[in-house]
Design brief:
Two copies of one chain form a homodimer.
Chain A (H helix, E strand, L loop, with lengths): L11 H19 L2 E7 L5 H12 L5 E7 L4 H7 L4 E6 L8 H9 L8 E5 L16 E7 L6 H4 L1 H6 L2 E5 L11 H11 L5 E3 L8 H10 L2
Parallel strand pairs in A: 1-4, 1-5, 2-3, 2-4, 5-6, 6-7
Helix pairs in contact in A: 1-4
Chain lengths: 216, 216
């Protein structure tokens, strides 16, 4: 039998890397930055992006790709703010893959963009395993979740280019030990900047947004 | 070629169902109940179980199977309370599967048990897809996560035999709309009881523990 008759199936992760590389190449050609925001359901990802919208509006041309298992609720929250936003529905899958992100990216007005913000599916485990072509993964941990999560879910924190501790306005009502948390983060990844944020009172937001727009 | 030479590979979910059935059969034989607690990282699963330990100690003979991606931190928290506890490490996987649970179960002193509490990996998506032989899945949502999660992660809430709203002591500091959340839960699953709990001040714990020990 000739090898021409043999069907070759690439493994799925290899296929993912191919699409991630295509995205990275397109971003470079168009001089666009892309961040991939990952954290648990309810850690404050969408609220964070709402805050970024108000700070970046009129200064930075950007779009949001909203990953969700089901519903278009998060995209609707951002759409009313008058920015380019697309909803990426995984229909049950627990993470975004590079192919879907690439397809959504190609449909944006790329000649009119500086930054693409990808909000991944709410999940601290699986999304970390998938490169979607971003310049940086951003790990989000709300202080209501407890300080030990960097040790318990180390892959995300190990791969992150920046780490955000959100909801710090709630610290007075919690037993969360912020110094211990920072120490746990450093045990798995000493390099990335760590921003302590509150979407309620704006703490830390200026520094974080400055980092986000200069990523590349 | 004879069919005897053809290797048959069952799909992974079929394999999972086989182990779940074996667990269910063993639990029935030994007259043991089992619940499978599922929710995001930091939603308060381990703290909830710590509270159950103090309430059930000396009344109900029970064991905890602690699912985690990495570390034995949660099992250590429970071990000091003097109960049967085993750590189930998934080594990167985002959920528990029935085979691992069955193996851990078989190593327990089954003739001396009324209830097995499985704490799944912190993740609102994938663990819901895997039957581990439990009598009921229990969905945990902390009020810091936002009221729309039952719509955004419907599979877990649809399959749950009970739904726990945790950290309700923090409600005065949040914009969480508890009536809207209950309504969203009912949109995906009107049947199960819903318990509003605080591990800090004990609210709702008696009713929840009573439900848990009578599940079957």
């Amino acid at each position: 039998m000739s090898t021409q008759n043999i069907k070759v199936y690439q493994d799925l992760m290899g296929e993912n890397e191919k699409w991630a590389a295509a995205t990275r190449s397109l971003l470079k050609e168009k001089n666009i930055a892309m961040i991939n925001i990952i954290g648990s359901p309810g850690c404050g990802k969408t609220t964070l992006i709402e805050n970024m919208v108000t700070r970046l509006h009129g200064k930075t041309k950007f779009a949001v790709l909203e990953g969700d298992v089901e519903t278009t609720r998060d995209a609707e929250r951002l759409d009313v703010l008058g920015i380019q936003v697309s909803q990426l529905l995984t229909k049950g899958a627990c993470h975004l893959e590079a192919k879907l992100v690439n397809h959504a990216l190609c449909d944006l007005d790329l000649d009119n963009l500086d930054l693409v913000i990808v909000e991944n599916v709410g999940n601290m485990v699986c999304p970390a395993e998938f490169d979607v072509g971003e310049h940086a993964k951003v790990a989000v941990l709300s202080v209501t979740e407890g300080e030990d999560k960097p040790l318990k879910y180390p892959l995300l924190f190990r791969l992150a280019g920046a780490i955000l501790l959100t909801k710090i306005d709630l610290l007075p009502h919690l037993t969360f030990d912020i110094d211990a948390c920072v120490d746990f983060v450093k045990q798995v990844n000493a390099v990335p900047p760590l921003f302590k944020l509150s979407s309620v009172n704006g703490t830390g937001m200026d520094d974080w947004v400055e980092w986000a727009i200069s990523v590349r």
